[in-house]
Design brief:
The complex is a heterodimer of chains A (178) and B (189). By secondary structure, chain A is an all-alpha fold. Helix content of chain A is 85%, strand content 0%. Chain B contains 8 helices and no strands. The longest helix of chain B has 38 residues. Classes of the chains: A mainly alpha (178), B mainly alpha (189).
Chain lengths: 178, 189
């Protein structure tokens, strides 16, 4: 006996009335599919009738203890991280102080100083650039004729429409090809 | 308590008290033992407490907690690759505050054993979807929201899970019938 598509319809709760009728007729004649249907109903009944499992009494108190313990652990971890950063920096500084000569020490200090100055200059340049962009953006709309803006907006709208159409159309083309 | 509060865990105990049963039940059905369920439920409430500022009050608090619990249990199952559940674990499955009669205890134990055997055949995400559907009556949309899945994905998972559960029960019944036949055979000779 051909069980397809009935073996799948057994688990489908959204069958059309015609399909449901066909399935019932098949179940009447097919003991194998009938057994699967009965097993499905048995599984549902078993789970729906099972009690909600409860923890032992005092769950909230145990959770509070657990939470305090976790908080302590998190705090200890934070302290450990800060401590290890401090120790690492201290070890590196000590190594530099011990190994570097007086001249090298001065060079390291100069290097750090110049790096800081470079960073400061870079930020200043960034701020100036951003300000000039802001100025251009505040002036530009009044200098450019309205017709140019209309042309740009129309162009953008056209390409957005093409893009939206491609998203909408491509999946259906792919489905047809598949 | 609003999501902006929650510095002190004591404030969160109301949330724990009101929701620990459904969260524990989900963990228990997912993991299969009381100890694992207790740990998972504790972890769930800890994660919820730590991330309470992310909770959207327009959503149900229980749904949010169950989402955390389900994801935690899925991760746990993947980590532990729990295949079998020892019978010892089932001796503790009875609701302790109800203290049922010994016969009822045995019935419950067998029932829970059957449920665990069945659920254990499912993939973790499918198991979570089944628990949410049958124990909490969640709709496809609610399951999708809780497990971060699309609705078609939930439908597909539930379909696959139901097929698997029915197939397992069907197989168990076939084995049972075969066993009875085997037992009866020597008597007929």
């Amino acid at each position: 006996m051909n069980h397809s598509p009935f073996e799948n319809w057994i688990f489908d709760d959204e069958l059309e009335p015609g399909e449901a009728k066909q399935l019932n007729a098949h179940l009447h004649d097919c003991p194998a599919c009938k057994a699967i249907k009965t097993a499905d109903q048995e599984a549902k009944h078993l789970m729906r009738s099972a009690a909600i499992a409860s923890p032992e009494t005092g769950f909230t108190d145990r959770w509070l203890l657990f939470a305090r313990h976790q908080e302590e652990k998190a705090q200890k971890k934070q302290v450990a991280i800060l401590f290890s950063i401090f120790i690492t920096l201290a070890v590196i500084s000590t190594i530099i102080l011990i190994t570097a000569s007086h001249q090298q020490g001065i060079e390291v200090v100069y290097f750090l100083q110049s790096s800081l100055i470079d960073l400061q200059q870079w930020f200043q340049r960034l701020i100036i650039t951003l300000n000039s962009y802001r100025f251009v953006l505040s002036v530009l709309p009044f200098r450019v004729p309205a017709i140019v803006w209309l042309f740009l907006a129309g162009n953008l709208g056209f390409w957005a429409l093409i893009w939206a159409l491609s998203i909408w159309k491509f999946p259906s083309i792919r489905k047809v090809l598949a | 308590m609003t999501p902006d509060q929650g510095i002190d865990p004591t404030l969160f105990t109301t949330v724990v008290e009101e929701n620990h049963r459904p969260v524990f039940n989900l963990c228990y059905r997912m993991l299969g033992s009381m100890e694992d369920a207790e740990d998972a439920a504790q972890e769930t409430f800890w994660k919820a407490y730590r991330n309470y500022h992310r909770y959207d009050p327009s959503r149900s608090l229980l749904t949010w907690l169950l989402a955390i619990a389900a994801h935690h249990c899925i991760d746990e199952i993947r980590k532990r690759r729990m295949k079998t559940i020892s019978l010892d674990a089932f001796t503790e499955e009875i609701l302790p505050d109800l203290q049922p009669l010994p016969e009822i205890q045995t019935e419950q134990r067998i029932e829970n054993e059957n449920i665990h055997t069945l659920l254990d055949t499912l993939q973790p995400e499918d198991r979570a979807a089944v628990v949410m559907r049958y124990w909490y009556g969640f709709s496809d949309e609610e399951i999708a929201q809780t497990l971060n899945l699309t609705i078609p994905a939930v439908k597909s998972r539930l379909f696959r899970a139901r097929k698997q559960l029915a197939s397992t029960i069907n197989q168990q019944e076939k084995n049972h019938s075969a066993e009875i036949r085997r037992q009866n055979e020597p008597q007929s000779i």
